[in-house]
Design a protein that fits this description.
The protein is 35% helix and 23% strand. By secondary structure, the chain is an alpha/beta fold. It has 2 domains: 2-115, Rossmann fold, CATH 3.40.50.2300; 130-221, Winged helix-like DNA-binding domain superfamily/Winged helix DNA-binding domain (Arc Repressor Mutant, subunit A). Helix 5 (156-167) packs across helix 7. The chain is elongated and about 55 Å long. The two termini are 33 Å apart. The protein binds calcium ion. The site of calcium ion has 5 residues, from loops.
């Protein structure tokens, strides 16, 4: 997958480039807003820092969307995110707030690609991916979960929540992301619904430590099951 990193901060770029390359991405870097539109050819995902020296990031986001169907994830320092981005009205597919974890970034990139139906590794119905941790096995293609070889019956949404957390491979799945992907709402007061689904999952799987709560943030795969 080819990623165009639009980031003026050299330190951020120098930290991200090897981290993303290690995870199998091919990364091009663009240090200014100007020139970005000329580099979209062959790019799968644009990681767009909103705080650029030469062009307003939201304006550039709109320009990229107008020029291309490429996936866009906007990145911003805490406090810079405004309503234009929260509604993703500028054409972005998703957003991240700095400082963010690289694992979270990678999970978002895959999620964005998956939503666009272009990522073969994901929770999509056509996927053949299998995730296993301990004796819990999730088969996306068969839509099947087993614990110690025994099939466990889950509702569709329970399955999706579990698959998202398993697919993140230990990175945190934020509540916002799970709600957006499973319930189709980016911003929602429906947090309680998610808590109930997680509680039911823990009971049905009989592995209460599998889904670890990251207080106020979301869930990740537990270290000790
Ligand atoms: Ca910046």
């Amino acid at each position: 997958m080819r990623v165009l990193l639009v980031e003026d901060d050299d330190r951020v770029a120098e930290a991200l480039l090897p981290a993303l390359t290690r995870r199998g991405f091919s990364v091009d870097r663009q240090a200014t807003g100007r020139g970005t539109l000329d580099r979209l050819n062959g790019i799968d995902v644009v990681l767009l820092d909103l705080g650029l020296p030469d062009i307003d990031g939201v304006t550039l986001c709109r320009a990229i969307r107008a020029a291309s169907d490429v996936a866009i994830i906007v990145v911003s320092a805490r406090g810079e995110i405004d309503d234009r981005i929260l509604g993703l009205h500028a054409g972005a597919d998703d957003y991240l707030v700095k400082p963010y974890d690289v694992g979270e970034l990678v999970a978002r990139v895959h999620a964005v690609r998956r939503r666009r139906g272009s990522d073969p590794v994901g929770v999509g119905a056509s996927s053949t991916e299998v995730f296993q941790t301990g004796d819990v096995r999730v088969d996306l293609g068969r839509h099947e979960v087993t614990v110690a070889g025994e099939a466990v019956s889950l509702s569709r949404k329970e399955f999706q929540v579990l698959a998202l957390v398993m697919a993140a491979g230990g990175a945190v799945c934020t509540r916002e992301r799970i709600l957006a992907e499973v319930w189709g709402r980016t911003w929602s007061g429906a947090n309680r619904t998610l808590d109930v689904h997680v509680a039911t999952l823990r009971t049905k799987l009989g592995r209460p430590a599998l889904l670890e709560t990251v207080r106020g943030v979301g869930y990740r795969l537990g270290q000790n099951q």
